[in-house]
Queue: 2 jobs
Job 1
Amino acid sequence: MIKLEDVTVIYNNKTLGIKDINLEIKKGEFVGIIGPSGGGKSTLLKTINLLVKPVKGKVYIDGREITNLDTSSLRKVRRQIGFVFQDYNLVERSSVLANVLLGRLGYMSSLQSFFNLYKDSDYYLALQGIKEVGLEDKIFARADRLSGGQKQRVAIAKALCQQPGIILADEPVSNLDLKVGENIMNYFKKINEKQKITIVINLHDVNLALKYCHRIVALSKGQVLFDKKTGEVDEQL
Ligand code: ADP
Ligand code: ADP
């Protein structure tokens, strides 16, 4: 489903992002990426959907190499990959519904998206996503009126609205209190179990990774320190 083969990313010809990464993630896995700040977690996630381009190696999604795809083919691959950010990445002055509908943009032509020509099926998917994260009573609320946890739930609903096979989440709970963070992790757990969506999540908090993820990949200095099933990780981390 996701495969990285000898992937190296270097920024501006000088700063190492990740080095010689070999990683295979199967459909339905729930993988936590941990490691020190600057270890390469964010670079790894961004490499999976080619937000950053490797200088070496190959990236595969569903068995297909995507490393050198043209922009329009890459757009089609990316619409099956939801991305959840640390800072939510919402349009603050728009409603929950409007934000979640943006998850459909990848499926629309530029003309359709310019005129906001959503179809009934887009609204249906948006409402399903909103329900999945329990925000039915906030559908028309403006994003900037929501709490951090609610904003992140909107971001998850937006990702779900893409009908993704994969969700990548880059430190999605780092700006939240532990309790709210656990609540968000439970939503990831639910959509992983119920919808069989593959989840790869960067986590600063090792304990959260141990509690929710099935597999832990530890990165340091851009390289894999270990890659284990959660039950086999030494708790003395
Ligand atoms: P983490 O997510 O584990 O904190 P990152 O992937 O953000 O690690 O960073 C890995 C290395 O790449 C760091 O040295 C960081 O400074 C560098 N880096 C990340 N993004 C950029 C960028 N856009 N331009 C230059 N260097 C970057
Ligand atoms: P993260 O923990 O997700 O890497 P950062 O705060 O490190 O977040 O990075 C925020 C943004 O700045 C990202 O888009 C990242 O690509 C970029 N960035 C990170 N490190 C550097 C760097 N050393 N030089 C330039 N841009 C960077």
Job 2
Amino acid sequence: MDSSYDVGLGNYDSIIRNVANKDSIKFWESQAHNIHWFEKWHTALEWNPPFARWFVGGKTNAAYNALDVITQKKPDKKAIIWEGENGEERILTYADLLQEVSKLANALKKLGVKKGDRVTIYLPMVPELIISLLACARIGAIHTVIFSGFSAKSIRDRIDDSKSKIVITADGGRRRGTVIKLKDIVDDAIKNLDFVEHVIILEHTHNDVKFTNKDKRWDELVGPMDVCCESEMLDSTHPLYILYTSGTTGKPKGVLHGTGGYLTHVFSTFKWIFDIKDSDVYFCTADIGWVTGHSYVVYGPLMHGATQVIYEGSLDYPTPARIWNLVSKYGITILYTTPTALRMFMKNGDDIPNSNNLSSLRLLGTVGEPINPKVWKWYFETIGKKRCPIVDTWWQTETGGAIISTVPGLETIPLKPGSAAKPVPGIHLSVVDDNGNKVKSDSKGYLVIENQWPGMLLTLWGDDEKYKAVYWSKYKNKYYAGDYAMMDTDGYMWLLGRADDVLKVAGHRLGTIELESTLVSHKSVAEAAVCGVPHEVKGESIIAFVVLKSGLLSDAQLKEDLIQHIRKTIGPIATPDKLYFVEKLPKTRSGKIMRRLLKAITQNEITGDVSTIEDEASIDEIKKAIAELS
Ligand code: WTA
């Protein structure tokens, strides 16, 4: 190993690992004491496989932990330094945030929102997004945030599944200099959904919007509300949020997280991984529409009283220097971003970061996809100037918080470019084969989690059976993560991408089956197959193969129509890079589309066994379509 990567912070300290290894439940219980409880739990973990309930009997509140705990000590500490893409700035202290959250919480109560009710939030990256999540948490309503890059149909499916009676949105959001009209999209999404009682609209971009009798303007509704709102004392197991994520079936899954266990996991991992100090200025570039934003923009930093930068817009707009301008302007000390963003920054050349003052940085993080060693080294050398440790954090929407990462706040271990290192204390992992047997060091296998951890999902919203089937049916009593991994002889983990039909496009999780059913829902399409292929910047890009209904002819217009159909149905994040028309799709004899084979064909590397294929002619045909069109 190259000793130049042997940097870290804190003191090497394996004591905590030893404690955690002896009894992980007791260990997590000791961690739970770090958050505020109105009443203490009587049972640390109730495990009715595969359902885990942490700190049963305990009463707590996520918003109280994120706001009141800090406000009582440091009301004037800056919580949010917000910058809009157009250069607007706002600063909110912890006291400001508490006041705004309390007012919105009172407004929600006035609209009839009760404990356990669902509230859908579809907002750009503005402080009111954080305020909305915390207002729900304060009164025990379950928030369900939808990323503002999703389109009307995706929003509708999620609102319909969660049966939210309130939707919080804005007139618009800013992206690359244009205004995305969010309220119009919501109008479309909730047409004829009678259970949606009210829509709260934040005026942000001041574009024209049509008001209906369900609509309430944020300022008019929230402005007059009382600035105090007691936090509900909620059971530790009370659901905090639903976050929809793509899986291997057509319908997105509503991952349901609880309160006390989730907060404990997020509190501890935020401290261990980012080694947070009172003087830090933290910047996580994730949108709150994704789990990274929930855990490490909202709950983690706020529970620690951190000061953070929130930015609405593209990190390379209006110039590729935007991200580095933010770092030098606000003196950012901790930067947490994605490999896709780093690949983009790297492509833009070293002159751009080199002409900005990045000396404030002390710790760098990455999340969401495997990071190529080359990009890791660039991050370490060009951005961190070989001074800043890199934390490569592996986790999932379902895990609630980080599972694998170095923990500079606890111990210093050598870094290996491209490896996320070791599980955080209190987590036991294995890499296993199809039969559940551990594979040898340096061999590829499936990543499983062997024990229960406090951030783990409670279930999938309204679908316990699917929860059991997706995560717990492949192996008995082991959580199946759906990722390939390898453990080296030093016990370091190398994450090798998804083992299922889930894509990671620019760090966003998309299901191939979801994309295929969207294509098939178009009137001209008989069948469709989608696969992901390596992409220089986005990590993976989407390639679609379409079989038209008989008699229909393919042309450039139809291709464009199909691409637009995906953008409108799922959202711009799902736009295929290439779309080919073919006569047949390669299938196994049992009728399953061979997506892996498609991927191999597109990359000219058919080496595997194709003996189960139903019609070998389809391979030649797909090769022909690709040759003709590329
Ligand atoms: C992938 C994002 C390699 C992985 C927090 C996982 C990673 C999926 C890493 C979950 C990493 C996340 N290295 N791969 N550091 N972090 N992944 O639910 O495939 O959007 O299963 O959660 O992202 O994506 P999700």
